[in-house]
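Hi U.,

Before I forget, here's the chain from the pilot set. I'm dumping it here mostly so it's searchable later in email.
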Amino acid sequence: MKKLLTTIISITILMSIMISPASAELKDGYIDHGSYRDEFKYEDIGDFRYIYRYGGSILEVLYKKRSSKQEIKRIEFPAEHNGRQVDEIGFTTYEDDDKVRNLKVNTIFIPKTFKISLQITTLEFHIRCVDDPEYDGDERLVSVRNIEVDKDNPFLCSKDGILYSKDMKIMCFFPDRNNVTVYRMPNTIENCWDTFYKRNRLKKIYFSDNLKIMRCIASNCKNLEYVYIGKNTKEMGPESFSYDNKLKTVKIKSNKLKTIGYGVFLGCTSLKKINIPSTVKTIGMAAFRVCKSLKKVQLSKNLKKIGDSAFRSCKSLSKVTINNKNNTPKIGKNTFKNTKKGIKFYVKNKKVANSLKKQLKGSGVKNAKILIGKKVVYKNIKG
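Structure:
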């Protein structure tokens, strides 16, 4: 009897070890990126998938639930697993569906034990959709309303459901279904690591006065009407406000702005006017393309280059003022193609007029005029 009891106890212990998550055999997974294959180990426990990347040096935890008829009220990601810190969090994609199954989440909660460094250039904390280990497919959509952070977390904090660094110098994540319609970015913010892409509840955005380079793309925001650019912004990054069809007003307060990048206002069909600061030296390719309501533009006196198709298909554009005193800026190909026939260019002097006449070749203008004051210097210019 004693021998039998010992045997039963041994079997019980062995079985408990076998089903223990800590000792479960890890599965092989990979993502094929074409030029290379990302291989890793993973295990599933409850609603989460634990992925060990790069020989286990990175621990990524993904919420693996595929869909839900109702909004998921709350997801609390683990900060640790098997005694080690979680490095990244996110959501899996679908495995074998022809259609992506989207997931709606009300709140994601970040515990105080989640220890990450926000002092490096690459953000280690990800609220994102990532490829599933078992399926090489597109990312699926995960819609989030709010982020909450334990008040004792030493690295992160949240305000109005938006995620920031603890010192309020970095805006980390703006949930796509956040209820904020008028967003005033705190003036302490110096960097923005998340985009406002398709944040369709937003009507107005006031960017921080201390945000030097705009990496915060607020494109395809179907209800965005007003944008404030802060006092110390030096560069507006590519496609910052592209296809914001209701954007009417852009107030640029910066006297340090040097670059309006590629496609910044591409497809902003409601934009009627914009103040371009005198400090701007470059207007990028397609920067104002298809701004159908834009009627007149005053260019910077320090402007050196206008990129290809910068004002292309601005069908209402009839007046362009060039404030350079010596030479006109270099004008790219098709810059003014499909603008209003007979468009007028106002310049300071004859030298700039002569330079502009040459630059307008290849610009796409039809029957354009160059004027000094009210006097027409050149007319019927075709580019």
